[in-house]
Amino acid sequence: MNAPPPGTFTLRIFRSDIMSDEEHTEEASESHVDHEIQSGVTAILNACNPRTSPLNWLLLAVPFAAYTSLAHIDPGIQFIASLIAIMPLAFLMGKATEEIATKTSESIGGLLNATFGNAAEIIIAIVAILAAAEALKVGENGTADVYIHLVQASLIGSILGNLLLVMGLSMLWGGIRYRRQTFNTQAVSGNSTLLLLSAICLILPTVYHIALSSGGDWVESEIVDGVLMVSRLAAIILMISYGLLLFFQLKTHSDLMSNGGGHGHEEATMTLKDAAILLTIATIFVSWMAEIMVHSVEAAGETIGLPAVFIGVILLPLFGNAAEHFTAVVVAGKDRMDLSLGIAIGSSVQIAAFVAPLVILLAWGLGVDLSFEFGLLETAVCMLSVLIANSICRDGESNWLEGTMLLATYVIIGIGFLFHP
């Protein structure tokens, strides 16, 4: 919110001293009328106004991406346009979710934020899985494999981006402004433990496959079937564990999780109906942009000369979560590291323990052989990233050097994927 012009506050105090009770009543009534005028279509348009957030300027990419798809323009242009368009749409989904959360209880609001915090990644993954299922129906197994690998790479990339890029930038920016920052280790501990469990579930199928293949006594089809069943059962266990984590944080031990950085005292700027409409519209457009992006990614990779794994691990999570990343860095600069780390680590946990298992189970239902066997390189760097993040968060303090180390790790991993064949 912009600060009022100099003297406004003094003027309001002076007016309040001389106003009668009747005038106070009239002003309150006028304020109520003004609030009512801002509801409906006006409130939704205001949320999309570039003056409200400069990121909304990128909404211009939405009609452009739609045009490039309908006109069958170069896939590289379709991919870039749809990728850019997802950024402001994801921001609007987050804003609508926050507005809905202000009108519910703390536990329901937390659950909403947990569910919609990574909505863009969920939609992209679901669209890719549906595309893989359609490709398998018509016998295009190669195309289906591309979509499956895209899902796997984007999920790994989201975890890496939140743990290394977002947390690194937050600690760097906060450390530059404050010599020493602290955060609640109890609040971070539960997320970190479940994140480590998720990383074990990600790396286990790969190790399982390698171990049985090296023995030479097992048929490859039996090993693949075993990997699929291990992944599916692990997905169910992870989703249950994630539900228990939410119950722990929002219900039984909510007092330990309190950090003063919540949104419970923020005033709503939209009605519940308007927020629900905005969320629905943004979700529809994100789904449309995701469909354009997924169907153009294979040809776009060849056009722009980037490996598909680099696109999935680096580009998709970077653009899909840009608004949330920006928020984490901004609040770190205000010395609110609990909230910043809650966004970074919390989003990683959502991806690893909720979104990834959800996609595995959805693929199972659609007959798509998607497992947690994301590749040796991908799972190795994910496990190492989790260990590094847990090590840094152990002492409850952060500084700019730790942020730099996290960023250096992310850049090195990104270089590895850039030259991935």
Provide key terms for this protein.
globular, A middle domain of Talin 1
Topology:
Blueprint: H1 8-18, H2 21-37, H3 41-47, H4 61-70, H5 75-101, H6 106-116, H7 119-137, H8 141-177, E1 181-182, H9 185-215, H10 220-252, H11 254-257, H12 272-304, H13 308-320, H14 322-332, H15 337-366, H16 376-393, E2 397-398, H17 400-418
Antiparallel strand pairs: 1-2
Helix pairs in contact: 4-5, 4-12, 5-6, 5-12, 7-8, 7-12, 7-15, 8-13, 8-14, 8-15, 8-16, 8-17, 9-10, 9-15, 9-16, 10-15, 14-15, 16-17
Notes on the protein architecture:
This protein has one domain (28-418): A middle domain of Talin 1 (Up-down Bundle), CATH 1.20.1420.30. Helices cover 79% and strands 1% of the residues. It contains 17 helices and 2 strands. The chain has helices at residues 8-18, 21-37, 41-47, 61-70, 75-101, 106-116, 119-137, 141-177, 185-215, 220-252, 254-257, 272-304, 308-320, 322-332, 337-366, 376-393, 400-418; strands at 181-182, 397-398. Strands 1-2 form a two-stranded antiparallel ribbon. The longest helix is centred in the middle third of the chain and has 37 residues, at 141-177. Mean pLDDT is 80; it is low at 1-37 and 260-265.
